[in-house]
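Sample entry (298 residues):
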Amino acid sequence: MRSFLFLPAGRNFNTLQACNFLMENIYLLLLIGFIIGAIGTLIGAGGGFILVPLLIIIQPTFTPETITAISMAVVAANAISGSVAYMTTKRVDYKAGIIFAICTIPGSILGVYTTKIIPINVFDIIFGIMLLGLAVFLFLKGGEKESDKKPVTEHKGWVHQHLTDKWNIHYDYAYDIRKGIILSILVGYFSPLLGIGGGIIHVPAMAEWLLFPVHIATATSHFILAIMATVSVIVHITEGSYNDPLILKMVIGLVIGVIPGAQLGAYLSRKIHGKIIIKALAISLGIVGIRILISRFM
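Predicted structure, serialized as tokens:
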């Protein structure tokens, strides 16, 4: 069978057979879910940044609402499973996580409703540009070593935190909670709008802008994501986004695969050099972003 990755990316051709094969092949859905869970949890991103472009390319008949509904369900399952694993490592900053998660909720609800009115071509262009921007940022700045970070400094209005993880590693850091709130409001809106979950934005922003240690940023982002994505899924359920039996089957297959994948990702997060992973992901994001944009303008 012809590989899905080489199917044309435009939305004006007949790929019904390919779409049906993906939705009805439970083993393929489990495999995709497992990969998304492992990679998404490894970098604290939820995996939506992988699933959404995949759906855009191989499921051209899906509306933005359907794509984001599927992605957010998978992201929620991934984030919940990954958060449980990260909690056992004691790397979740609960104070920051709860405050930032609460700030994402209003935006996440508004983002779900925005997907109902955004045109499909606008959705593709926005997502393609965002992927390219993230690719450039992660390639140039991602994976910075902890020793390269600025020392902890005290500022008025900042929160100073000290955490000790499961392996007795100590983390001392301080962050501007006002910047964190603003960041979370924006992430809350754009995450369900694009179906990406927000971790791909939250993790580098927390590490580079708020100066969180990378491991703490990854774990805390996943905790925030679990709350935010669950809210988005509830809104999608009330809107009937999962009423189609084929869509529901697709979601169930992906979610079942994501749960063990997230556990593997949390385990690998302390085994694999983060810089190498982030650079490879940056290149992949750039390629996917270019492909999506080319499909819109050609």
